[in-house]
Amino acid sequence: MKKVVSNASEAVRDIQDGMTLMLGGFGLCGIPENCITALVNLGVKNLTCISNNAGVDDFGIGLMLKGRQVKKMISSYVGENAEFERQLLNGELEVELLPQGTLAERCRASGAGIPAFFTPAGYGTEVAEGKETREFDGKQYIMEKAFNSDYAIVKAWKGDTDGNLIFKATARNFNPMMAMAGKITIAEVEELVPAGDLDPNFIHTPGIFVNKIFQGVDYEKRIEQRTIR
Protein backbone atom coordinates (compact mmCIF):
# COMPACT_ATOMS: atom_id res chain seq x y z
CA MET A 1 0.00 0.00 0.00
CA LYS A 2 1.45 3.34 -1.07
CA LYS A 3 1.04 5.72 1.85
CA VAL A 4 3.15 8.70 0.77
CA VAL A 5 1.24 11.66 -0.65
CA SER A 6 2.76 14.83 -2.04
CA ASN A 7 1.36 17.43 0.37
CA ALA A 8 -1.31 18.34 2.91
CA SER A 9 -3.90 19.25 0.29
CA GLU A 10 -3.71 15.77 -1.21
CA ALA A 11 -3.81 14.20 2.25
CA VAL A 12 -7.05 15.89 3.35
CA ARG A 13 -8.90 16.09 0.03
CA ASP A 14 -11.37 13.29 0.94
CA ILE A 15 -12.50 14.92 4.21
CA GLN A 16 -16.14 15.98 3.87
CA ASP A 17 -18.61 18.24 5.65
CA GLY A 18 -19.94 16.90 8.94
CA MET A 19 -17.05 14.53 9.69
CA THR A 20 -15.38 14.04 13.08
CA LEU A 21 -11.65 14.79 13.22
CA MET A 22 -9.02 14.17 15.86
CA LEU A 23 -6.24 16.76 15.72
CA GLY A 24 -3.05 16.01 17.61
CA GLY A 25 -0.88 18.32 19.65
CA PHE A 26 -0.63 19.80 23.12
CA GLY A 27 -1.38 23.51 23.20
CA LEU A 28 0.40 24.68 20.04
CA CYS A 29 3.11 22.04 20.38
CA GLY A 30 3.03 19.24 17.81
CA ILE A 31 -0.09 20.41 15.99
CA PRO A 32 -0.55 19.41 12.32
CA GLU A 33 -0.01 22.93 10.97
CA ASN A 34 0.07 21.98 7.28
CA CYS A 35 -3.12 19.92 7.44
CA ILE A 36 -5.00 22.62 9.33
CA THR A 37 -4.08 25.14 6.62
CA ALA A 38 -5.19 22.65 3.96
CA LEU A 39 -8.53 22.13 5.75
CA VAL A 40 -9.07 25.90 5.83
CA ASN A 41 -8.38 26.07 2.10
CA LEU A 42 -10.62 23.05 1.47
CA GLY A 43 -13.49 24.87 3.16
CA VAL A 44 -15.20 21.85 4.75
CA LYS A 45 -17.91 22.78 7.27
CA ASN A 46 -19.85 21.42 10.26
CA LEU A 47 -16.85 19.52 11.62
CA THR A 48 -16.60 17.98 15.07
CA CYS A 49 -13.03 18.50 16.24
CA ILE A 50 -11.45 16.51 19.06
CA SER A 51 -8.29 18.16 20.34
CA ASN A 52 -6.52 19.02 23.55
CA ASN A 53 -6.86 22.69 22.58
CA ALA A 54 -8.72 25.05 20.26
CA GLY A 55 -5.64 26.90 19.04
CA VAL A 56 -5.36 30.68 19.26
CA ASP A 57 -7.21 33.33 17.27
CA ASP A 58 -4.92 33.32 14.24
CA PHE A 59 -3.19 29.95 14.45
CA GLY A 60 -3.99 26.25 14.73
CA ILE A 61 -7.63 25.25 15.06
CA GLY A 62 -8.34 28.94 15.67
CA LEU A 63 -8.10 29.40 11.90
CA MET A 64 -10.86 26.82 11.40
CA LEU A 65 -13.02 28.49 14.04
CA LYS A 66 -12.52 31.84 12.32
CA GLY A 67 -13.78 30.30 9.08
CA ARG A 68 -16.85 28.86 10.86
CA GLN A 69 -15.81 25.34 9.89
CA VAL A 70 -16.24 23.82 13.36
CA LYS A 71 -19.71 22.82 14.57
CA LYS A 72 -18.57 21.15 17.80
CA MET A 73 -15.35 21.28 19.80
CA ILE A 74 -14.37 18.50 22.24
CA SER A 75 -11.40 19.68 24.28
CA SER A 76 -9.82 19.95 27.69
CA TYR A 77 -8.15 23.38 27.37
CA VAL A 78 -9.58 26.30 25.40
CA GLY A 79 -8.39 29.34 27.31
CA GLU A 80 -6.29 31.09 24.66
CA ASN A 81 -8.88 31.72 21.95
CA ALA A 82 -11.11 34.81 22.04
CA GLU A 83 -13.04 33.75 18.91
CA PHE A 84 -13.81 30.41 20.57
CA GLU A 85 -15.17 32.29 23.59
CA ARG A 86 -17.26 34.59 21.42
CA GLN A 87 -18.84 31.73 19.47
CA LEU A 88 -19.51 29.74 22.65
CA LEU A 89 -21.18 32.63 24.49
CA ASN A 90 -23.30 33.47 21.43
CA GLY A 91 -24.49 29.89 21.06
CA GLU A 92 -22.75 29.46 17.71
CA LEU A 93 -20.51 26.57 18.78
CA GLU A 94 -21.24 23.31 20.58
CA VAL A 95 -18.62 22.58 23.23
CA GLU A 96 -17.86 19.49 25.29
CA LEU A 97 -15.21 20.14 27.92
CA LEU A 98 -13.51 17.12 29.46
CA PRO A 99 -10.91 16.49 32.14
CA GLN A 100 -7.62 16.11 30.30
CA GLY A 101 -7.08 12.55 31.49
CA THR A 102 -10.57 11.60 30.29
CA LEU A 103 -9.87 13.12 26.88
CA ALA A 104 -6.63 11.15 26.63
CA GLU A 105 -8.24 7.88 27.75
CA ARG A 106 -11.17 8.24 25.34
CA CYS A 107 -8.59 8.52 22.55
CA ARG A 108 -6.58 5.56 23.83
CA ALA A 109 -9.67 3.41 24.34
CA SER A 110 -10.74 4.05 20.77
CA GLY A 111 -7.38 2.87 19.43
CA ALA A 112 -7.40 -0.17 21.71
CA GLY A 113 -10.91 -1.27 20.72
CA ILE A 114 -12.39 -0.57 24.16
CA PRO A 115 -15.92 0.84 23.74
CA ALA A 116 -16.22 2.45 27.18
CA PHE A 117 -14.57 2.74 30.60
CA PHE A 118 -15.31 4.07 34.10
CA THR A 119 -13.46 6.99 35.67
CA PRO A 120 -13.98 8.99 38.90
CA ALA A 121 -12.95 12.22 37.15
CA GLY A 122 -15.92 14.55 36.84
CA TYR A 123 -18.30 12.66 39.11
CA GLY A 124 -20.71 15.05 40.82
CA THR A 125 -20.04 17.84 38.27
CA GLU A 126 -21.57 18.95 34.96
CA VAL A 127 -19.20 16.53 33.24
CA ALA A 128 -21.28 13.64 34.59
CA GLU A 129 -24.66 14.90 33.40
CA GLY A 130 -26.50 12.31 31.31
CA LYS A 131 -23.82 9.65 31.83
CA GLU A 132 -24.13 6.28 33.54
CA THR A 133 -22.65 6.12 37.04
CA ARG A 134 -21.56 3.07 39.00
CA GLU A 135 -20.01 2.32 42.36
CA PHE A 136 -16.82 0.28 42.67
CA ASP A 137 -15.41 -0.51 46.12
CA GLY A 138 -17.38 2.33 47.68
CA LYS A 139 -16.29 4.96 45.15
CA GLN A 140 -18.47 6.53 42.45
CA TYR A 141 -17.44 6.48 38.79
CA ILE A 142 -18.92 7.76 35.54
CA MET A 143 -18.89 5.90 32.24
CA GLU A 144 -17.11 7.53 29.33
CA LYS A 145 -17.31 6.21 25.78
CA ALA A 146 -14.44 5.86 23.34
CA PHE A 147 -14.37 8.38 20.52
CA ASN A 148 -15.61 7.49 17.06
CA SER A 149 -13.63 9.65 14.63
CA ASP A 150 -13.53 9.55 10.85
CA TYR A 151 -9.99 10.91 10.65
CA ALA A 152 -7.02 11.35 12.98
CA ILE A 153 -4.59 14.05 11.85
CA VAL A 154 -1.24 14.01 13.62
CA LYS A 155 2.18 15.61 13.36
CA ALA A 156 5.42 13.71 14.01
CA TRP A 157 9.09 14.61 14.07
CA LYS A 158 10.20 11.77 11.81
CA GLY A 159 8.40 9.18 9.75
CA ASP A 160 9.21 6.65 7.07
CA THR A 161 7.48 5.69 3.85
CA ASP A 162 5.75 2.77 5.61
CA GLY A 163 4.09 5.21 8.03
CA ASN A 164 6.17 4.46 11.15
CA LEU A 165 6.35 7.57 13.34
CA ILE A 166 8.63 9.09 15.96
CA PHE A 167 7.29 11.99 18.03
CA LYS A 168 9.39 14.49 19.92
CA ALA A 169 9.01 15.77 23.48
CA THR A 170 5.55 17.17 24.36
CA ALA A 171 4.17 16.21 20.95
CA ARG A 172 3.99 12.65 22.35
CA ASN A 173 1.13 13.70 24.63
CA PHE A 174 -1.87 13.20 22.32
CA ASN A 175 -0.48 12.45 18.87
CA PRO A 176 0.43 8.74 19.36
CA MET A 177 -2.91 7.70 20.85
CA MET A 178 -4.87 9.70 18.28
CA ALA A 179 -2.85 8.09 15.50
CA MET A 180 -4.21 4.72 16.66
CA ALA A 181 -7.79 5.91 17.00
CA GLY A 182 -8.90 7.32 13.66
CA LYS A 183 -10.62 5.22 11.00
CA ILE A 184 -8.15 6.92 8.66
CA THR A 185 -4.94 8.45 10.00
CA ILE A 186 -3.01 11.21 8.25
CA ALA A 187 0.51 11.98 9.47
CA GLU A 188 2.58 14.99 8.54
CA VAL A 189 6.26 14.79 9.47
CA GLU A 190 9.19 17.15 9.60
CA GLU A 191 11.48 14.54 8.08
CA LEU A 192 10.38 11.67 5.83
CA VAL A 193 12.92 8.86 5.36
CA PRO A 194 12.94 5.56 3.45
CA ALA A 195 11.49 2.47 5.15
CA GLY A 196 14.12 0.81 7.30
CA ASP A 197 15.97 4.02 8.23
CA LEU A 198 14.25 4.36 11.61
CA ASP A 199 15.51 2.34 14.56
CA PRO A 200 12.56 0.06 15.50
CA ASN A 201 13.37 0.59 19.20
CA PHE A 202 12.45 4.26 18.94
CA ILE A 203 9.24 4.06 16.89
CA HIS A 204 6.24 5.35 18.83
CA THR A 205 3.48 4.59 16.30
CA PRO A 206 3.79 1.56 14.00
CA GLY A 207 2.97 2.18 10.38
CA ILE A 208 0.00 -0.19 10.44
CA PHE A 209 -2.04 2.64 12.00
CA VAL A 210 -1.11 5.25 9.37
CA ASN A 211 -2.91 5.54 6.02
CA LYS A 212 -1.33 8.68 4.56
CA ILE A 213 1.98 10.40 5.24
CA PHE A 214 3.81 13.39 3.81
CA GLN A 215 6.72 15.69 4.62
CA GLY A 216 5.48 19.04 5.87
CA VAL A 217 6.97 22.44 5.13
CA ASP A 218 7.43 25.85 6.77
CA TYR A 219 6.62 24.94 10.36
CA GLU A 220 6.09 28.04 12.48
CA LYS A 221 6.02 26.18 15.83
CA ARG A 222 4.49 29.17 17.54
CA ILE A 223 4.78 29.59 21.31
CA GLU A 224 1.42 30.05 23.00
CA GLN A 225 2.69 32.33 25.75
CA ARG A 226 6.27 33.53 26.03
CA THR A 227 7.29 34.36 29.61
CA ILE A 228 10.44 36.36 30.27
CA ARG A 229 11.88 38.09 33.26
Concise structural overview:
With 229 residues, the chain is α/β, with parallel strands linked by helices.
Set down the secondary structure blueprint:
Elements: H1 8-12, E1 20-23, H2 33-42, E2 47-50, H3 61-66, E3 70-75, H4 82-89, E4 94-97, H5 100-112, E5 116-119, E6 133-136, E7 139-145, E8 151-160, E9 165-166, H6 175-181, E10 184-193, E11 212-215
Parallel strand pairs: 1-2, 1-8, 2-3, 3-4, 8-10, 10-11
Antiparallel strand pairs: 5-7, 6-7, 8-9
Helix pairs in contact: 5-6
Description:
- This protein is 21% helix and 26% strand.
- It is α/β, with parallel strands linked by helices and 229 residues long.
- The chain has a single domain (8-116, 148-215), classed as Glutaconate Coenzyme A-transferase (3-Layer(aba) Sandwich).
- Strands 1, 2, 3, 4, 8, 9, 10 and 11 form an 8-stranded mixed sheet that branches. A 3-stranded antiparallel sheet has the order 5-7-6.
- A hairpin with a 2-residue loop joins strand 6 (133-136) and strand 7.
- The longest helix has 13 residues, at 100-112.
Instruction: Give the CATH level 1 class.
Output: Alpha Beta
Described by strand count, sense and barrel closure, the largest sheet is:
8 strands, mixed
Please give the radius of gyration in angstroms. Answer: 18 Å
CATH topology: Glutaconate Coenzyme A-transferase
Q: How many distinct helices? A: 6
Average predicted confidence as pLDDT = 95
CATH architecture: 3-Layer(aba) Sandwich
| Beta-strand residue fraction | 25-35%
Broad structural category: alpha/beta
Number of strands: 11
